[in-house]
Amino acid sequence: MAVTRELLAYYGQDREHGRLREGRGRLEFWRTQDVLRRALPPAPARVLDVGGGTGVHAEWLSEDGYEVELLDPVPLHVDRAAELAGVTARLGDARHLPVPDASVDAVLLLGPLYHLAERADRVRALAEARRAVRPGGVVAAATINRYAAVHDTLYTHSYLEERERQAVHAAMADGIMMSPGHGFTAYFHDPDEVPAEFADAGFPEVERYGLEGALWLYGDVNDWLDDPERRTLMLDAQRSMESVPSLLGVSGHMLTIARRDQCP
């Protein structure tokens, strides 16, 4: 990721640790877990979790029997992740992976691409993932959708603030999201531009999954997630619509998966 002082200050507040563990962020977590469990090679495979934060996904992957190494540019994240059983964690940058060629079975980029505002850097991170993964291995990357900020600020009512409206409408125009109050830049993708970035990194074919669908915008989404029976129905419903092209951009996040071909 592009590690700026502002980015380190933001994540140094430990905001990331609870983001997917509580509230409606759980929908993104469970949907990511659902897609990955179907896409990843069986355990015990070696997974490189790049930009893995405090280990929210590394934790369950290790519990599932995977050999997990987590890389993240934020020291606080690495320290927290290193405390997890079965997880190795160290500092690292998605554009310069400190692993040999074809040495892992899967590479996860579940955060770096939206912290790389320049397309060349995003393609470089994907190309590094391709270099690191074995032939036939999986690369999975998360992106934030172009209109997610508009949807989110309407949901949280912060759209009522003029500077929030200006920021989200600017992001709608070119994908560059300057987060008011956070001080760092993120990149929000149009779903249809993601396959071209993968193609430039050496992945001509991809599979795309809308993670939350429209469900993250429901006013009672937390009530559904709190109830195990209703949660199962909600997750099953989104799974049935997860790859419908016309619905991909409604999700807050999209997960794109590619497999390295058998030829170098």
Write down how many β-strands occur, each being a DSSP E stretch of 2 or more residues. Answer: 9
Rough outline: globular
- Portion of residues in beta strands equals 15-25%
The number of helical segments is 11
End-to-end CA span: 26 Å
Q: Over the alpha carbons, how many angstroms does the gyration radius reach? A: 17 Å
Structural class: alpha/beta
Order of helices and strands: HHHEHEHEEHEHHEEHEHHE
On the 0-100 scale, what is the average pLDDT? 93
Q: What fraction, in percent, of the residue positions are helical?
A: 25-40%
Q: List segments where confidence is low: pLDDT < 50 over at least 5 consecutive residues.
A: none
User: How is the main sheet built?
Assistant: 7 strands, mixed
Task: Pick out its properties.
264 residues; 7-stranded mixed sheet; alpha/beta
Walk me through the topology.
Elements: H1 5-11, H2 16-19, H3 25-39, E1 46-50, H4 56-63, E2 67-72, H5 75-81, E3 87-91, E4 104-109, H6 119-132, E5 133-144, H7 148-156, H8 162-174, E6 176-178, E7 185-187, H9 194-200, E8 207-210, H10 221-226, H11 228-241, E9 253-259
Parallel strand pairs: 1-2, 1-4, 2-3, 4-5
Antiparallel strand pairs: 5-9, 6-7, 8-9
Provide a short characterization of the protein structure.
By secondary structure, the chain is of the alpha/beta class. 39% of the residues lie in helices and 19% in strands.
Written description of the protein model:
- This protein has 264 residues and is α/β, with parallel strands linked by helices.
- It is 39% helix and 19% strand.
- The longest helix is centred in the N-terminal third of the chain and has 15 residues.
- It starts with a helix and ends in a 5-residue tail after the last strand.
